[in-house]
Amino acid sequence: MKAFLIDRYAKGGAVRLGQSPEPELRENDVMVQVHAAGVNPLDAKIRDGEFKLILPYRLPLILGNDVAGVVVRVGSKVRSFKPGDEVYARPNKDRIGTFAEFIAMDEADVAMKPKNLTMEEAASMPLVALTAWQVLVGRANLERGQKVLIHAGSGGVGAVAIQLAKHIGAQVATTTSTANVDLVKSLGADVVVDYRKDDFEEVLRGYDVVLNSLGKDTLEKSLRVLKPGGKLISISGPPDPAFARQSSSGWLLRQVMRLLSAGIRRKSKRHGVTYSFVFMTANGAQLDQITSLIEAGAIRPVMDKIFPFESTNEALAYVETGRVKGKVVITVK
To answer: Where in the numbering of this chain does the Enoyl reductase (ER) domain appear (predicted)?
Structure first.
């Protein structure tokens, strides 16, 4: 099958279009013919080698962490899917590879595609929607009437997180650039801070939750907008002791992870708030719940550009500009 692979980690390197064997179909797996694949900053970071210590992939590696397509075969123990089903998923972190014609995934990680989305729209959703869900529902336990600040509201995760938080009934603030103010308002943001004009930490106060996807400076400034008992949750690091315990890393790497977050955890404690790190995981059951929200119109995809499969390198380069509104997708079939 055709696939885009990396042979070695290289910052800004190209992914290679080549031939790869079809993936092995295990007894709990569904084999999916890929129709479309989402392109994420995570793909570029894996290519660059940023996660090679916590995600020790065997090279050559097929990239890609979002998929929509059609089931063509199922393993002997699969009960939830059959050939012909239209599905979408974020594959397990150990079995990525959606920049290809086929991918095999555990049925527990897969969900039926929302009926009201195209394949391209569906492929844009799993990773970002599951991230938003696992932060706001799973970690923050966000409730109606609470106040949440979602950084980078026009980005992939931010665009979904704003809609999910509004569906829950929270008051939503977000940061974005001047060009994207109307977009984030259309998604439901109640308060929009244009970072080109204002410092969010000077104008926002008394928030229950912050979802951070940006760097260290933004992370530390976010402490000032939280009220005592608030929750600072980051998807861009640094990893915390809980993540270190859950990871299958060796003892030394777990200690390094603890040290990386020691500073922000100390500062959080002084502010009377908690800090935690979320590294999203594949979850078909949660994706089913997200499907219901999409089909009900509570969440809609935000698409920027669709690239043909052959232009996967160009799609990755565009994502790396940091100026993407919502998601970028490649069409495979």
So the answer is: 12-330
